[in-house]
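Exercise 3.2. Students should predict the tertiary structure of the chain below and write it as structure tokens, then compare their answer with the key that follows.

Predict this chain's 3D structure.
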Amino acid sequence: MIRGHCLCGAIHFETNAAPLGASMCHCGQCRRQSGGIWSSAYVAETDLTITGKVSWFASSAAAKRGFCAQCGSFLFWKAHDEDTISFALGAVVAPTGVTLEKHIFVAAKGDYYEITDGLPQKD
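Answer key:
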């Protein structure tokens, strides 16, 4: 069981499913919304239970981002045409049991850091 919550505790989520695609996203949208690199993994949307009121922001024609309107925690990313949902690994209560697989959107990464962990990098 993986459980997580926002900073203020107004939103909780949990899943019994094994998370997939654990990654660090370096895209400009994730950097701006999170203030840095956003780490996430995904499960089938039907496998994630969310309690509390998630506010959704349509960040592009392809996806939306879910956050807590009370504390601002960026918790979810959902593509409109997929049946999966990504959740913030930083919001998961340890131990997560998750191992990062890759870095994504590295072509858009900030110029103030280097990626040196040896994980695969996708432009």
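Discussion points: Residues 28-34 form the longest helix (7 residues). The chain has one helix and ten strands.
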